[in-house]
């Protein structure tokens, strides 16, 4: 079994069709913050504020405001370490080959598929057509 799959052929690529997302992309986000403090638990106030801006699709942009009171300023809180799990049994090569489809790339239902870019950016020349003596030009290219 090859370690890497070969690139997609032009014929296979041409068969891909654009499709919209099949399901909603709404989800839940959990974010952890670790702060140092005393015995008394810090107080938390949270607000969700809709801003005046919208994204390219017209959806509202929200700001999450967290006010935390009662933690120790200037000190660091170290999050707990990751738990490790020992691997005692490995899958055989035969089982891995049977489950190879699970290891291949897939497109989640909440994402649309756009195989070809729709907005192609026109190249912009970086050098002026005619250099001026009174202008300094950046010559470092990263």
Report on this structure.
The model has no long low-confidence stretch (mean pLDDT 83). This protein has a two-stranded antiparallel ribbon with strand order 1-2. The chain is built from 3 helices and 2 strands, in the order αββαα. β1 and β2 form a beta hairpin. It has helices spanning 10-14, 93-98, 100-103; strands spanning 43-54, 60-69. The protein is α+β, with helices and mostly antiparallel strands and 142 residues long.
β-strand percent reads 15-25%
Integer average pLDDT? 83
Give the number of helices.
3
Morphology = extended
Helix content percent band = 10-25%
Care to count the β-strands?
2
What is the terminal-to-terminal distance?
39 Å
Side by side, the strands of the main sheet go 1-2
Radius of gyration: 26 Å
Order of helices and strands: HEEHH
Uncertain parts: none
Largest sheet at a glance?
2 strands, antiparallel
Assign the structural class, choosing from mainly alpha, mainly beta, alpha/beta, alpha+beta, or little secondary structure: alpha+beta
């Amino acid at each position: 079994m090859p370690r890497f799959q070969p690139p997609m052929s032009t014929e296979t690529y041409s068969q891909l069709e654009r499709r919209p997302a099949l399901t909603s992309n709404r989800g839940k986000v959990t974010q952890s913050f670790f702060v140092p403090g005393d015995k008394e638990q810090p107080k938390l106030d949270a607000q969700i504020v809709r801003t005046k801006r919208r994204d390219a699709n017209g959806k509202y942009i929200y700001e999450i405001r967290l006010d935390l009171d009662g933690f120790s300023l200037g000190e660091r809180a170290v999050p707990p370490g990751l738990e490790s799990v020992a691997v005692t049994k490995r899958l055989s090569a035969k089982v891995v080959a049977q489950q190879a489809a699970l290891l291949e790339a897939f497109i989640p239902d909440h994402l649309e598929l756009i195989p070809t870019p729709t907005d192609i950016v026109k190249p912009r020349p970086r050098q002026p057509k005619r250099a001026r003596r009174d202008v300094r030009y950046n010559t470092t290219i990263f």
